[in-house]
Design brief:
Strand content: 5-15%
Number of helices: 14
Order of helices and strands: EHEHEHEHHHHHHEHHHHEH
Radius of gyration: 20 Å
CATH architecture of the largest domain: 3-Layer(aba) Sandwich
CATH superfamily of the largest domain: P-loop containing nucleotide triphosphate hydrolases
CATH class of the largest domain: Alpha Beta
CATH topology of the largest domain: Rossmann fold
Oligomer: single chain
Largest sheet: 6 strands, parallel
Length: 307
């Protein structure tokens, strides 16, 4: 029999962390993060990482496991998350995966397609083309050969753009076609996937409030500290939501009010893209206002586990 796991998914600002904490304590579970930014050390406020107090309530995995200048991928996530699942199950505890990075979740539940190996020569050539032709060139090339992947990848996510182009040049097919062919059909676990949804205007309000709270909690100081450690604004991690906006402010490129406006706007747009990804998965059970429907969610999960 396949191991059973529960996943709590949804857009940024939906309240996944609070729901996961509530549920984990009720079903004797440990939490595995599925967030492509919470994997970084020293990046806590801007990634909405669970606080030390929250982490003390329930054991968490895959938070702060790499430095901000290190590369990571969905394939690596699958490997380390699978090991974390095994360790939790060996303790006779439940597994609760929580996050909004759809590709990480897909790679965990269905495996990752055995695509072309990385090719350093192609990698070097692509990076040289970007240097020569200017920022954004590779992303526009990706739009031409694989618009599906281009929609899912941030224009500044050079690592994933190059990987997608590598696969295309090595196999003649876009990486999205490999994913579709593989179709993530071979599920590795038996799982229940719960999605958190809000009325769009309420979700956007939550996002705006969160952005403001991040500043109050010391986000500017966090980014300043990262820069002091030598992590500059050109890094992939520092080009992520919030961090790139505060870097622009600290570099005197824009005033703080403009940084905040663009951070809120870009976060709302990101949440919309996340919803588009998750809406394509018919297997997700959607729940509104999760903490108000906690009993319903708990009942659903306990039925899934058979108790």
């Amino acid at each position: 029999m396949k191991p059973k796991i529960v996943l709590i998914v949804g857009p940024t600002g939906a309240g996944k962390t609070k729901l996961a904490l509530e549920i984990a304590q009720k079903i004797n579970a440990e939490i595995i993060a599925a967030d492509s930014m919470q994997i970084y050390r020293y990046m806590d406020i801007g990634t909405a990482k669970p606080s030390p107090q929250e982490q003390a309530l329930v054991p968490h995995h895959l938070l702060g496991i790499i430095d901000p200048d290190q590369d990571f991928s969905a394939g690596l996530y699958q490997t380390v998350a699978s090991k974390a699942i095994d360790s939790i199950l060996q303790k006779n505890k439940r597994v609760l995966v929580c996050g909004g990075t759809g590709l990480y979740i897909k790679s965990l539940t269905h495996g990752f397609f055995p695509g072309a190996q990385e090719n350093r020569a192609i990698d070097r050539e692509l990076r040289a083309q970007e240097d020569q032709r200017g920022e954004g060139y590779l992303y526009h090339e990706l739009i031409k050969v694989d618009p599906v992947s281009a929609f899912r990848i941030h224009p500044k996510d050079t690592f994933r753009i190059i990987r997608a182009l590598e696969v295309y040049f090595l196999t003649g097919l876009p990486i999205s076609a490999h994913h579709e062919k593989h179709a993530f059909k071979e599920t590795r676990y038996e799982y229940l996937q719960i999605g958190i949804q809000w009325d769009r205007s309420l979700l956007y309000d939550r996002i705006n409030i969160r952005c403001e709270q991040m500043i109050k909690d010391g986000f500017i100081e966090e980014v300043r500290s990262l820069r002091a450690r030598g992590y500059n604004s050109e890094l992939k991690s520092m080009q992520s939501l919030g961090y790139r906006h505060i870097c622009a402010f600290l570099e005197d490129k824009i005033p703080l009010d403009e940084a905040m406006r663009s951070m809120k706007r870009d976060t709302r747009r990101f949440a919309k893209r996340q919803l588009t990804w998750f809406r394509a998965d018919a297997g997700i059970v959607w729940v509104e206002n999760p903490l108000e429907n906690l009993n319903q969610i708990e009942k659903m999960i306990k039925e899934f586990f058979g108790y």
